[in-house]
Amino acid sequence: MQADRTQSHYRTLGITRNASADDVRKAFRAMTKKFHPDHNAHRQRWATDQMRNIIEAHRVLADRSLRSAYDLQEDIQQEREQKRSNLRPKGRPDGISPHSRAERLLYDLLSGNIAQAIKDYDALLKKDDEYDLATLLDERDWVDCKFLLAEGYEKRARYDRALSLYEDLYRNNIAKERSAFFRNEVRDRIVRICCQGPARNAPPDEAAKYYMRALALDLPRNRKAFLHKKIAECCLEVGDEDTARRHLNIAFDLKPDLKGVTKICNRLDFDPGKSGAAS
Hints:
Layout: H1 9-13, H2 21-35, H3 44-61, H4 64-87, H5 98-110, H6 114-127, H7 139-155, H8 159-171, H9 173-176, H10 180-196, H11 204-215, H12 221-237, H13 241-254, H14 262-268
Helix pairs in contact: 2-3, 5-6, 5-7, 6-7, 7-8, 8-10, 10-11, 11-12, 12-13
């Protein structure tokens, strides 16, 4: 969710946030001419880096949906920066009450002290496994707190803890109402962990559980088809051919042109053209 804050895409192209689509195109052409490596022979590497940033900025700002999502990211980041500036003059909160500890977690997360926040959160859960930030902080604060904690756990490959926090955010009505982009971002992170995190090296039966967790989300048909295919592969690995066929049948019902299934179809003697409608 966090973007590179070294320089915004708007600044990269030398335009303002209210620039029109035509302004974006014109700025891209101008910047390309100015920073192209062919025009900066004495600074080839520097020019190449500049062009890479310019191309990425144009890719995002020239696409209406990507630009809308990027603008929302900018707003969220500005909000966080404002919170940091508001928190730091007060100093790091002290006290031993649950509320004080929750405020201290938020302060450390917004200040970039993720390792300390995770250490403290682990200690709080060890002492009370029902410790819930949602009961101790304002709505906006606990959503930020849980999201940043989940992000920190994910980066440290502590996937189960990250998943539980992301899933809590995804299911909670307050977090749902924050914005469609935010909820989709949380959803995509859950899918990424389930498909690219522990499932990769887990035994088939454990991997299938992660894929099932992802299936509990509101996903497009093609993503659901992919997950059902992965579950079918896991079931086949543990010798459960009936369940494998059922999930493979659902996968083809969702996406008839599903790719990468030749091997499992052959092993199951499964003919996609004869598969029935999935329930």
